[in-house]
Amino acid sequence: MEISSTGNGTADAASSDAKHCDPVECVKSEAAEEPGAKKPRAMTAEERRAELKSKIGSLKKKPADFDPRSVACWEDGERVPFLFLCLAFDMISNESGRIVITDIVCNMLRTIIKTTPDDLVAAVYLSANRVAPAHEGVEMGIGDASIIKALAEACGGKEAHIKNQYKEKGDLGLVAKVSRSSQSMMRKPAALTVAKVFDTFRIIAKESGKDSQEKKKKHIKSLLVAATDCEPQYLIRLLQAKLRIGYAEQTLLAALGQAALYTENHAKPPPHVSSPLEEAAKIVKQVYSVIPVYDKIIAALLRDGIWNLTKTCSFTIGIPVGPMLAKPTKGVSEIIEKFQNMVYTCEYKYDGERAQIHYMEDGSVEIYSRNAERNTGKYPDVASQYRYEMECFERRPVYILLKL
User: Fold this and answer.
1) Which residues are marked as active site?
2) pTM for the complete prediction?
């Protein structure tokens, strides 16, 4: 097992790579050099990419047999290459078995934890095809038209040609991959990193006001110009929120729990746990349903370990909990049979919207939908009424589930 170090989220795009060597152009340094010794030749970008592609197959190993060092071609502390994430996505897209996919994601996350834990938050958000927690309401706000314009400019092509290829292939990501691979450049920009891509996505999502679409297009173009191999394909798919690799967020959560378990050695499983891997996956899923914020969960995992996660990450006023999902039945008899010898309650199902109301410490009220969307402005009368009623009672933070 490995020991992981702690990390806190991401930095701004302008400074995210400033503190770290570029993963493609950086020369591996020696701990100590003898006087007169020849310095090792720096690997070219093509050589580094070839090395990574030759090693990426190791991610398919069973986690118990996997060594993160066997695939990492960057030094500890260096920013994780975006190509590493894209190659993992490509591998996942060619698999159909849930267990194999979970193993690949688990080993991918373990490699990042081992080398550059600061990049884990960015990698997980990108793997979930998100840029922020759902309740923050941060979205890219990019349409296909803007992406096509940026792609045409980055590749030196015409929009009409890009549109025709999109219509033919049905996947703008594949169009981007083919377009970029056929273009040569005099001077290639620095290689993309996971942190750089994620931070740029956050900037794109926050652009607003006059000329915001033009600014977003320029950010996308800068990423595409620097992209190589299969990176353009997944850049475009991430921008479209259509990753198309065939795995659900629940698989990502399970893999995150297992990766945390494999990379920590400061705590043993509780005595009652018979299957640590299954329990670790269950814990992360449970915690995510209560506090669906990867920043907080990952920070707690790296700092305190998987077995303390339920203690260090719990319900927080202002962060909506995940809704309980109902399972449809074919009839009343199925319900009676399923709950034999059990005490249960039944209630009428009303039409309407399920709401979650949070009464904050400052006396304000927030209303969230079942999808964690902030709907306070949609129901001002409900917010006002609950604020009044709560002020009549003891002033303390509370949340209420309500059907509107």
Assistant:
1) 349
2) 0.82
